[in-house]
Design brief:
Blueprint: H1 5-10, E1 18-21, E2 25-29, E3 37-43, H2 50-56, H3 58-73, H4 77-80, E4 82-85, H5 89-92, E5 100-105
Antiparallel strand pairs: 1-2, 2-3, 3-5, 4-5
Helix pairs in contact: 2-3
The structure holds guanosine-5'-monophosphate (5GP) and zinc ion.
Amino acid sequence: MSDCLFCKILAGEIPSSKVYEDEKVVGFKDIQPQAKEHYLFIHREHTANVNEISENSPEQLADIFQGISKFTKSNELEKNGFRVVTNLGPHGCQTVFHTHFHVLGGEQLRGFGS
Ligand code: 5GP
Ligand code: ZN
């Protein structure tokens, strides 16, 4: 999509700090990290949000989570633990409308009850 920020990152039109890349999926550092380590994992194919990708391209969800799995096994994230979050729409505070999964870790995160 020509007016999509993450499609522009995929096309190399906007710079990013990539941490993971395969033929289907890219992971890069979030520009405003909310934890010591904060990455965004996206599919190279544009979809708008987690419901659209689930309904139209569920295999792409598996691609993304396989990318997250390979990445987090390649460093300390799996050993120490991490969190995956996705936002949808205004109440979820979604600001970029290219399906993405936040991977947060690198420090002790707060539990939902604490
Ligand atoms: P959302 O709020 O849609 O769930 O997440 C969008 C994320 O994209 C935010 O965490 C925000 O910091 C990140 N972001 C926005 N613009 C850029 C950018 O130009 N580069 C990178 N690497 N991240 C961005
Ligand atoms: Zn896009």
